[in-house]
Design brief:
Structural class: mainly alpha
Number of helices: 4
Number of strands: 0
Distance between the termini: 27 Å
Strand content: under 5%
Shape: globular
Length: 80
């Protein structure tokens, strides 16, 4: 299974589709990407990386993902 970064997981939580499918999420991310300006390079790269990983996994692997926002970043120096 593909390893998503913390940022990719949170991005996918924001843009997950109503139908909850992998293809729906890819379409939502592709649509959002169309609204980004050329200077939003970090978000473009993040979106592209997430879409690439989503495209490379199966629907069964996608179903095993827990797409719930995690506002705790492992790099933060505080405890939950």
């Amino acid at each position: 299974m593909n390893n998503f970064t913390f940022e990719e997981m949170n991005l996918m939580c924001i843009y997950k589709s109503e139908d909850g499918t992998r293809q729906g999420l890819i379409e939502s991310l592709d649509e959002m990407r169309g609204y980004l300006a050329a200077d939003e390079t970090e978000l473009l790269a993040l979106t592209d990386a997430a879409v690439e990983k989503l495209a490379g996994m199966t629907d069964e692997e996608f179903a095993d993902l827990e797409l719930y926002p995690d506002f705790y970043n492992e790099d933060d120096d505080y405890e939950r």
